[in-house]
Design a protein that fits this description.
Helix content: 25-40%
Largest sheet: 9 strands, mixed
Order of helices and strands: EHEHEHEEHEEEEEHEEHEH
Strand content: 15-25%
Structural class: alpha/beta
Number of strands: 13
Number of helices: 7
Shape: globular
Distance between the termini: 28 Å
């Protein structure tokens, strides 16, 4: 399965460094993987120069770090439309660390085995080794607007606004493999991947990134499920600088375990976790 990996760096280059080190370490046979990092105006990208030697495509996203609305879904949509020649897309947040060999291949096998799936989502393990489920497909009565709008000039998003809703499940984009077929591409072209809000008399419905896509795919009898594969996901490191600082010690410890590869045949971390 040819897989296009897409991640977005948003002033979080130290986490991007860890993501790429762990991905390359645990996936030494990458002939079917293309890795694209799109950057929102970070000023320390030279830290990732080593990754270019391993075929990582690093380029500007066309968006800034200070945009007043979330740009993540738009950037993902642009990447999908610009890179059509693959069987699946792996959307992975920049603050993810792969912890096991051939995680992506295992997720691809799970997706290929079930024709009615449009996506497979990894298990989210936080920096303390605790599993967290951002949505298991069951309905929920709470919707949270987090990355919707922020004040001009601010680099942090406000606290989430919560209200009752009825739409329920959403496949989370932190580490999700999506089948690239006609239904998916049409949904991306027509509605995109950004958050969306529907206003109606019974109250507003808020669909966070990939939320509306999840509902559209239901109309085609398509579903998603959680993989058996687990990754570390720090979470929220670009929303609030104080949250990112609290996670930095664990990030740096993992960076020590995954040194920068010396050459294309050097894929073994020291003291593998």
């Amino acid at each position: 399965m040819r897989i296009q990996v897409v991640t977005v760096n948003h002033g979080t280059t130290a986490y991007a460094d860890l993501l790429l080190r762990s991905l390359i370490t645990h996936h030494p046979k990458r002939s079917e993987l293309s890795i694209l990092l799109l950057d929102n105006g970070s000023d320390d990208l030279e830290r990732l120069d080593w990754a270019r030697e391993f075929g990582v495509d690093i380029r500007p996203s066309g968006y800034s770090r200070t945009a007043q609305v979330t740009t993540h879904g738009e950037i993902l949509r642009d990447a999908v439309l610009a890179h059509p020649d693959c069987d699946a897309y792996l959307f992975v947040d920049v603050d993810v660390c792969f912890m096991a060999d051939e995680t992506i291949g295992a997720m691809a096998a799970e997706l290929a085995a079930e024709a009615d799936l449009f996506a497979i989502k990894a298990i989210w393990s936080n920096e303390n080794g605790e599993d967290y489920d951002p949505g298991d497909g069951s309905s929920t009565s709470i919707s949270r607007i987090r990355e919707s709008v922020r004040f001009a000039g601010s680099t942090d998003f406000p606290e989430p606004y919560e209200f009752d809703t009825g739409y329920g499940d959403r496949v989370h984009p932190f580490c999700v493999l999506l089948r690239n077929d006609r239904v998916f591409r049409t949904a991306v072209e027509v509605t995109g991947l950004s958050p969306a809000q529907i206003q109606c008399e019974r109250g507003a419905l808020w669909f966070d990134t990939l939320g509306l896509l999840t509902q559209i795919m239901k109309t085609h009898g398509r579903s998603w499920r959680t993989s058996r594969q687990r990754v570390v996901h720090f979470g929220n490191v670009s929303w609030d600088s104080s949250w990112a600082e609290n996670k930095a010690q664990r990030r740096d410890a993992l960076l020590d375990r995954y040194p920068i590869p010396v050459n294309a045949s050097d894929h073994s971390p020291t003291n593998r976790p």
